[in-house]
Amino acid sequence: MLIRRDDSLLLVVDLQQKLAPAIFEGEQAIANSVRLLNGARQLGVPGFVSEQYVRGLGPSIAAIRDAAMAETTADTTVNVRFFEKTHFSCAAEPGVTELLRSTHRSQVILTGTETHVCVLQTAFGLLDAGFEVYLVADASSSRTAANRQFAIERMRAAGIGIVTTEMVLFEWLHRAGTDEFRALLPLIK
Length: 189
What we know:
Oligomer: single chain
Shape: globular
Structural class: alpha/beta
Distance between the termini: 25 Å
Helix content: 40-55%
């Protein structure tokens, strides 16, 4: 099953100031989430960013906010929507599933932290809500490698697609030799 640009949305979960320094390979998860936010914006894929209990964990880190707020050079600007939550699962937060459904897209590309808590519970909640869910493994992490690994294994066993950042970008592009492909090359190199 390929990821289709016109049928997918990007959801970045809880890459926040006070939690980020404690995340195993957090720099990679952040950098790849930024790459995906930039690619989504350039290709017109709707993006969403959750923030867990901002008063305690702080807002999203600057790199995520910057990527989400950057303007496109295209005719239209795709806005990334931020929302705060207190439930671990984005799908359990009132109004979020409806917000995602309002895009009329059935595939959710999921990144963020922590893989074994908020990301896992969000993935299961969205799967239960009827979405196809794809976890971007190299854009998601936890405080420990073991928690990340077992969460990925559990999601895979439940039917959630496990993908990488480049898989998503290349599937969104679908072909080489286009202006879109050339525009996204800096995100791939």
